[in-house]
Specification:
Layout: E1 8-15, H1 37-40, E2 53-57, H2 58-66, E3 95-99, E4 111-114, E5 117-125, H3 131-139, E6 143-146, H4 154-163, E7 169-172, H5 176-184, E8 190-195, E9 221-230, E10 236-245, H6 254-266
Parallel strand pairs: 1-7, 1-8, 2-3, 2-7, 3-5, 5-6
Antiparallel strand pairs: 4-5, 8-10, 9-10
Length: 269
């Protein structure tokens, strides 16, 4: 996709030393400091990035804002018009985009507040999203964009964010699945990682990147370091430019295959 056809996209995340974006490490005093260096980079006078929209996945929104409540849907709602819907609240000009293709999030209202910033909610749906859910969003004054037939079309989402919402800069803010899907698709320009001086070793919490069948693969991506900076309270800022998905042919590398086969054969003995 031509970069001029989409917003500038940066991914800004806080991680532990072991690359996790959730976990007990976030709750201890050493990482919950008054300086709050992670948020200072995107909010307030010390912000390193300026942006009109934030994009997050459904699970991130459910975990942090809507807490897995179930929306009350009218299964007999009249069919809504086909295509995108821009509610009057979209005139706010600052947006919270959410990938919710199955229509599961229960919203209390059509805005979301974060650190004094009020954002108009825009749901990212597909043509397969139920009519009842689209009617529900309209009743709340929540905008939505149809991006894909039965799974999200990331390039179309980026194009609509620019053409319909006039977004020039967008922050990608997790979780790991959406982060990796956008990185692998070549749609992220820069990574901004604030690394906390802590880890908890939990094997079940979300990592910074997570491949998901049908959306992304484990093909490597190489990053170019733009800057590294020690922040207050022993936090570290890593700033990268994102490279393309690597096309190395692992299937025809005999040494790689030999190592993997040996591991599979011996693991669990």
């Amino acid at each position: 996709m031509n970069k001029t056809d989409r917003p500038f996209i940066f991914c800004h995340m806080e991680t532990s030393l072991d690359g996790k974006i959730m976990g007990k490490y976030l709750w201890i005093p050493e990482t919950n400091t008054e300086n709050d260096v992670f948020y200072k980079m995107i909010f307030g006078p010390e912000a390193r990035f300026q942006y009109e929209a934030t994009l997050e996945g459904r699970i991130t929104i459910e975990d942090n804002y809507t807490y897995y409540k179930k929306p009350e849907l009218d299964e007999n709602a009249a069919p809504v018009p086909a295509g995108d819907y821009l509610a009057p609240g979209a005139a706010l000009g600052v947006y919270q985009l959410v990938m919710d293709t199955h229509g599961r999030i229960c919203w209390p209202k059509n805005t979301l507040e974060e650190s004094g910033r009020t954002m108009h909610v825009v749901e990212v749906l597909t043509e397969a999203t139920p009519n009842a859910y689209k009617a529900y969003l309209r009743s709340l004054g929540i905008s939505y964009l149809i991006c894909g037939t039965d799974k999200p079309d990331l390039e179309l989402l980026c194009k609509k964010a620019k053409d319909l919402l006039h977004v020039e800069s967008m922050m990608l803010a997790g979780g790991g699945t959406i982060n990796w899907s956008f990185v692998q698709a070549g749609l992220v320009d820069e990574m901004s990682i604030v690394m906390a001086p802590a880890a908890d070793g939990n094997p079940d919490t979300q990592p910074l990147f997570l491949a998901k069948p049908g959306l992304s693969t484990d093909a490597p991506v190489v990053f170019k370091l733009l800057d590294v900076e020690k922040l207050a309270d022993d936090f570290l800022w890593l700033h990268y430019a994102v490279g393309p998905k690597n096309t190395y042919d692992f299937d025809n590398d005999p040494e790689y295959k030999q190592v993997q086969d040996r591991i599979k054969a011996n693991r669990g003995k």
